[in-house]
Amino acid sequence: MSATKPHFSLLKILERQAPLLMDGDKQTVFQQFYPDLVPPWWKANLEQHDAVLRIHQSYLEAGATILRTNTEGANRFELEATGFINREEAVNNSAMALLKQSLGFQGISAGSIIPVRKEGLSAEARAFAYGQQAIYLSDTGAGLFVLSEFSDDAELCLAIGAIRRSSQKEVLAHLRVQGRPDILKIVATLQHVYQEGAHFTGIQVPVDMPDLMELVDNMIEELGIVSLLLDESYPGDTVSDQFGIIAQTILEKDIAILGGGRQTSNLHIQKMKQFHQEIYF
Asked: Which string of b and e fits 246-267 if b means at least 16 CB within 10 Å?
């Protein structure tokens, strides 16, 4: 009798080695490593394999355990708008293959999905796009799905529902929050997102958000397992002092997952890893 491959469980991994570090923004690293390349960045999955491999490797070497595919915006509508008709499967399959090649036997491979950005589409059409992308990423080896850049909780729930109908893989869903937070409302929204089918929830926030630590404390108390993606305050190839201070403070709390959001790079994850080692070892 052949052995059955064990089901992936992020919870079991977190029980052994929390907190986990997630990679950061690919656009930032593309622009640093390959200034001549132009967006959309998912084209590199077909045309610039070495570039994608190098970016994944830079995050792996920096200390990230969860790495996301280079598939932000790689849905049927964005591909068709840029002339890549009927290439959605190829783009997403190649993205996962490149991520798997970079990881080897290390790390966790996550399929990355962001909001459908084309305007005027029905909810049914957008849900179909999320579901199709999830199928391609799931079939080629995603351990889980990571959702980011969703500032509309209704759209986030739409995507979660479509993904859950298309795949049995776990979903880690982030709500993007800006400005001074309404802490109770955010926590209640994340509880609703969990009820709508997300296995794990979290937020994506600017590093200079007011009352961020109070929000994190409330999320941990009410939700338990929390993921956080930090957006850097300005673009560049360095880590701001504020980002370093906030990342270190968050790692001293019971955060489950910490990763990079907008305008972050492998250097930001490297800084997180440094703080992680100082705190836990």
From this structure: bbbebbeeebbbbbbbbbbbbb
